[in-house]
Structure formats: structure tokens, C-alpha cells
Write a structure and sequence with these properties.
The chain is mainly α and 129 residues long. It contains 8 helices and no strands. It has one domain.
Length: 129
Amino acid sequence: MEYNEFINIIGYNKEWFEYNFLPKSFIEKQVNLWEDGTVKNVEHYKWAGYRFIIENEDLTKIERLNQLIDVVENDPNEHLYKGLISDLIRDKIITKKIFLGLGKKRFSEDKTILNKLGINRPATYKDDL
């Protein structure tokens, strides 16, 4: 299978690669798994990509975190991005202050995410800082 064909099947958007989050070797391993036929659920591959980023990037650097948020903002699968944001909150990479500093994002009003941060209403940013 062609590298780009696999990327399209999984739905990795251009930001994954513009920000150099996933090395070619990672994608090649995923292509091999795909071709092996063991796992055909697209979400498993993309989630593995998010986990790779969390485990291999220094997301305490705000520039890198913002780049990951760009990837999240462009991911059409809402379950995956909510899971990723929840993991980043759990791992204390995204704190209430950092979350509020991210500005208006598509996950900004998600009640589950807000509750994890101790925000019990839609974030007003100015009032919550």
C-alpha cells in the first residue's frame, strides 16, 4: 500500500506532518499492521498517533502544545479529540490556566472537559483567569 493512500484512509490531516509529529517509521509500522489485517479500525491507528505524540513530544512547550491543538481542531472525529484533551488534562499538561489561554476552540464548551478542569459553566476566559 502506498504511504499517502494509508494516510488518507486513516484521516491524518496535513498538520500531523507539517508539525513533524509522526515520523515515517511510525507510519510504516502502521501500514504493515493495516496490511497484515489484524486491526482495520481506523480510530485505533489515529489514537495510536495521538499517543505517540503524547509520549514523544515535550508538550509543556506551549508552541508544541498549540501545534497539537491545531491538529485536534482539524480532526473530524470528536471522540478522539475529546479523549486526547482529557488525557492532557489528566497528565496535567493542560491546566485550567492553559486551557483558558487557548482561546475559543471547538472543545471549549464541552461540559465533560470543563468539569475535569473544575469549570462548571461555559468558560468566560476573562472571569476564570
